[in-house]
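Researcher: Structure prediction, please.
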Amino acid sequence: MLNGIIVLDKSEGVSSAFLVGRVKHILKEYNSTENFKVGHFGTLDPFASGVLPIALGRATRLFKYHLANTKQYYARFYFGKETNTLDTEGIIIKESPIIPNITEIQKAIKSFIGNSSQKPPLFSANSINGVRAYKLARAGIDFDLGEKEIKILSFDLIKQVSNNEFDFRIVCSSGTYIRSICRDLAAMLGSVGHINMLRRESSGIFKLENAIKIIELNSNNILSYLNPLELCVPQFDSIDIDSASLKDLMDGKKVIFMGQNQLNTKKIVKNNNKIVAICTLDNGILSPDTWLI
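Model: Predicted structure follows.
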């Protein structure tokens, strides 16, 4: 079984689900007898491009830990027109003659830094009673997504592209919607806006310089682009246990790890230098959270 992460550089105009399907197809060409489990670590909208980590095998079990990692985006905001999708794929629903200048923008973006609550776009992958929000929005059904807690670590104005367009680089927590940031920034400046371009430059430690286009990936080179499981959880330190302790852990017995007195700390647990689980180490006692064998 192949376990790990392939970092794709997603192109504009294709869905994240489509790329998951393409990777499955390539894996079938690599080994037609094996049933591969494949998923992505955070969707990118079809109009967006950039880093899309694709998890293979047991790496799909690590998604919840990847959510703790930050993401970096390069985005182009267009002020003066708002679409119903807050990007270029929607229809214009609002217009404003007010176009902020560089000084006004630079002052306003400072207030976005830190923790805050954000309302996701109606056209999003959030679920309402098991139904994707974008499906409800397309059907004209009224609903409220509520707000979610996000964190913006940096928000920089890079350049002015045209009278209405400005480029930004944003580092934020997982689950942050850049389209919503554009909407909220425009509203703060007395205008309306939408995104003209969005490119994810990094997702956790996975960066564009290490990504491959799907057209370049094939059954002959897929192994060379497979990143190990440990890279999915770079925030955790690793510890090694012997085979007897591993058996005890698998049997549900208490495993004491001497010399480690941290409280409720996640660890990558290895046996013979091979990752076997993500565990919680609490006051010297190990307990498994996610098995990787």
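Model: The two ends are 11 Å apart (CA to CA).
Researcher: Thanks, that helps.
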